[in-house]
Amino acid sequence: MVGVLGAISIMSHIAYSQESASKGSSYAPVDIREDFAATMARMKKDKPAVMKRQMNLLADRYDLDNRLPKGVTMSRGKPIQEGVRAKLPTGVTWDQLAGMSPEDIQAKELLPKGFLPLPHPNHAEGGMVFPKFHIDEIRKQEGRELTRFDLDFGLPDHFLPEFPASIYLTTPPDLGGPRASW
After folding, report:
1. What is the pLDDT of residues 44-69, one digit of tens each?
2. Are the CB atoms for 166 and 66 separated by under 8 Å?
3. Backbone angles phi, psi at 62, to 5 degrees
4. Which of 12, 50, 72, 95 is least crowded, fewest Cβ atoms below 10 Å from its Cβ?
């Protein structure tokens, strides 16, 4: 009996291994056969198409206009953007969505695309992508170069925080935090 179970286990493992091998792998190869100069040339050539695809995705999901409310700024004076920026599906209003259950929204596929995860502009390569003003400031302060040859940062600067972004260790008093008593 044990021999039969062992044979069945081995046969199923072999069948599974053969099926997995035929599907390929989602992992990038560790033995890259393309030299760096060829990789760089290929990726530089592909950059306009990669950026066009990403900018089309952003424009499809979000209102990217620079709309500024009067008198509303970040801590150091950069204007904050006004309004909801996720685009709604055609023919749907926020009030209609508010009146629907989550199940209805899901069943009718009406969730605004702006609430879906935003993919990396070049997912296969990955890596950090920095806004131009960040790259320029790091270059000025530290002499390091963070510019990528294969893609640029896609979100418009007017949606990003001031550089460097403010970090509050406590909630500011105007937002309900503790008030200094000295």
Report:
1. 999 999 999 999 999 999 999 999 99
2. no
3. -130, 150
4. 95
Q: What is the pLDDT of residues 93-124, one digit of tens each?
A: 999 999 999 999 999 999 999 999 999 998 88
* Whole-number Å distance between alpha carbons of 114 and 136: 29
Show the CA angle centred on residue 27, arms to residues 22 and 31, nearest 5°: 100
Distance of CA 67 to the CA centre of its chain: 22
* The residue count for the chain: 182
Q: How many CB atoms lie within 10 A of CB 76?
A: 10
How far is residue 136 CA from its own chain's centroid?
A: 22
**Looking at residue 2, what is its pLDDT?**
54
DSSP string, the chain: -HHHHHHHHHHHHHHHHHHHHHH--SSPPSS--S-HHHHHHHHHHHHHHHHHHHHHHHHHHB-------TT-B-TTSPBPP-S--BPPPTT--HHHHHTS-HHHHHHTT-S-GGGSPPPPTTTTT------HHHHHHHHHHH------SS----S-GGGSPPSSPP--SS--GGGT-PPP--
